[in-house]
Amino acid sequence: MNKLKLILILIAVVCTANFGFSQVGINTTTPLSTLDINGNLNVKEIGIFNALVAGSGSLNGGPSLSATPISDGVYISLTPTTGNQEFILPNAVNVPGRIYVLRNISNSVDALIYTLGGLFFSKNSSTNTSAPLTMPFNSALKTVIIISDGINWTFIN
């Protein structure tokens, strides 16, 4: 009976020690980080088509009530339409660490990005950029990476 007890204690100690490091490797037997991927990474890509939706008024001087929410995916192809080019990010407080790669795929309409909470900051600035964040169809800001720090959104183009 004592041997069985000792074996169970040893198994518990070994299992606890392995969980303490919590490193997972994909295609590697020696992960060096919490998640170590030795290969390619594919992230969820979605397209958001902003069709003209009947709506009136705005959200506290911001987007119209028909702004299309951005809440899913990582790489997001935005398709704004004339008269309805507004997209809205979730509140940065609710999604700390969330990363989106946004691309305006329209060849004729700017995409306007708002947020339900938090401010926009350019990657090197401590001064916020006023909303909306405009993604012109014909400029260098056609694609942006936007990251929630848990309070605000930082964008990199």
Question: Your description of this structure?
Answer:
The chain is mainly beta. The protein contains one helix and 13 strands, in the order αβββββββββββββ. It has one helix spanning about 1-20, and strands at about 25, 35, 45-50, 70, 75-80, 85-90, 100-105, 110-115, 120, 130, 135, 145-150, 155. It has a seven-stranded mixed β-sheet with strand order 3-5-7-12-13-9-10, with no helix packed on it. The protein has a four-stranded mixed β-sheet with strand order 4-6-8-11, with no helix packed on it. The protein has a two-stranded parallel ribbon with strand order 1-2. Strand 12 (about 145-150) and strand 13 form a beta hairpin. Residues about 55-60 have low confidence and may be disordered.
Average predicted confidence as pLDDT: 83
**What's the number of extended β-strand segments?**
13
Q: What is the 3D shape?
A: elongated
Q: What structural category characterises the helix and strand content? A: mainly beta
The proportion of residues forming helix, as a percent range, comes to 10-25%
Output the helix-strand order: HEEEEEEEEEEEEE
How is the biggest beta sheet arranged? 7 strands, mixed
Report the total helices: 1
Gap between N and C termini: 66 Å
Strand content: 25-35%
Low-confidence parts: 53-58
What is the CA-atom radius of gyration, in angstroms? 23 Å
Strand order of the largest sheet: 3-5-7-12-13-9-10
List the keywords:
single chain; about 160 residues; mainly beta; 1 helix
Question: What does the secondary structure layout of this molecule look like, with pairings?
Answer:
Blueprint: H1 2-21, E1 24-26, E2 35-37, E3 45-49, E4 68-69, E5 75-79, E6 86-89, E7 99-104, E8 111-115, E9 120-122, E10 128-129, E11 133-135, E12 143-148, E13 153-156
Parallel strand pairs: 1-2, 3-5, 4-6, 5-7, 6-8, 9-13
Antiparallel strand pairs: 7-12, 8-11, 9-10, 12-13
